[in-house]
Amino acid sequence: MADTATARRPFSIKRQTGFGFIAACCFVMLYAPILILVLYSFNAGTSIAIWEGFSWRWYEAAWQNQRVIDASITSLKIATAAALIATGAATLAALATTRTRPYRGMTAIYAAINQPLMVPEIVTAVALLIFFAIIKIHTGYQGLGYLIAAHTAFCIPFAYLPIRARLENMDLSLERAAADLYASPWQTFRHVTLPLMAPGIMAGAMLAFVISLDDVVITEFVKSGGQDTLPTYMLGQLRRVITPEINAISTVFLAISIAVVTVFFLLNRKGGKT
Amino acid sequence: MSDATANGQAMTSGELAGEEARRREVRNRWLLATPALVIIFFAALGPLAIMLVYSFLEKGNYGGVIWEFSTDGWFGVFLKQDIFDDTIGFADAHLSIFWRSIKLSLMTTVITLAIGFPTAYFIATQPAKWRPVWLFLVTIPFWTNLLIRTFAIMEVIRNEGVINSIFIAIGLIEQPIQMLYTDFAILLGMAYVYLPLMVLPLYAAMERLDFRLVEAGYDLYANRWQVLRRIVIPLVKPGIIAGSILVFVPSLGAYVTPRVLGGGRNMMLGNLIELQFGQGRNWPLGAALSITLLVIVMVALLFYVRNASKGGVQSHG
Fold first, then answer.
1. Are A235 and B50 an interchain contact pair (Cβ–Cβ within 8 Å)?
2. Which of residues 169-208 of A touch B (CB under 8 A)?
């Protein structure tokens, strides 16, 4: 505010009338609904509109709700498995597509890896529904494997991007120095390249984890009975009478996402500096 | 920059070691990419091909398909046949859903651009020390769950929600305004959830904006509006296109937001597709609709790639 006030007297070339105001509205618009949602999770009453005082009752209710617990466990299982597999595959793929002169098929690999980002989620969801229905008929397998496979596929590009960025900004002289000192290619990779890549790999794994945790559409179409994740459970609840219990679950969910993303940014900033 | 040195390095060593080493390297790189490619092939790319096949099959009575060639699925995307007199006409219900999807997606793009452009400009003109903080504030909603953000909007615009409560309390209205379960609700929800997707690429373009050009404009007696229109907007055009595509594409395929805020009656393409796999029990039609959506999205992306590469040539030259 002080900035715009002083900027008015000496002519500022950067100033545009009203832009600061719209930006302020934008930030209010982004955060007000979320803050209201969090606020009502502490409501003592059963309404999500009328404030009746502070209480933890809805957090307790959610904590004791067996379906919420089951859905949370399913979510965590899928997100952990998908993030681990996706990060592994993405790390190898990043090594395959950086620090070389373009080779035959490199663009094709790049396009294939990023394909899940380009196709609308609903289209992938429906295609997987069809494909997995065929497999289910032929094998009879009903487990979490389908969801893990689907999540892994769309997590790969998110894990791939930070790892690739990290590799591209890496100093090659250290690896050359290791080779000069008679390190084998494997030793060089294990003791030089991998530690340098580590922040990128961590960042990629965290993004993949959050993306998997957040997914609604693909999970909704691929899941079999009793495989609700937290988001699909919530989607089902929104059709019924809503109590602040949903707000309480949302608030915990938000807190986890924000914590992971914050750590991701700190990792990335540190990575950028060294 | 490091890319260029890496390329140079690979080239000299490649020339020294000869064609054989080069071939081995390419093979190793393909091997490294294999796990990711296999997963994506089986859980993303391959199923799309199967869906294409399904769109040309006969529909099964209880969902699924009968393995006989049929174009009924594709026929049903835009047309319908009268059950009594067999006359062929346009499927009005489908056309109106296509139209609503495109209309709402375009409006979402325009609204997010109108809010996102000034916001990105504001962030880009802040002191360098504070820019990452502002940017982080835009990024946090982007990484939080879309369903939760849609639910948050739902709470705000419900009949008993915050907006109606305030309006009634200050005596502006007596009855709550029905906002939830309307096209307006879908529009507001999509603008809200996709706003960060507009701000981020716009900011990336504006961060590189050379303000000496703006200064030159003022020296030549341009006013603020002329500077914005003739200097700033043309320079950040790649960012505007990128942001518009990033908002338009997911809006067109939106499923959660119209389902939660549109309340079943105000469907968009995503919901129409789901319907064919649920109550509609018409998998071939659903598959054909999905591919139609995919084609529209691909056309939009191609438009973007062509424009982006043009912009790239300009900035290098």
1. no
2. 169-172
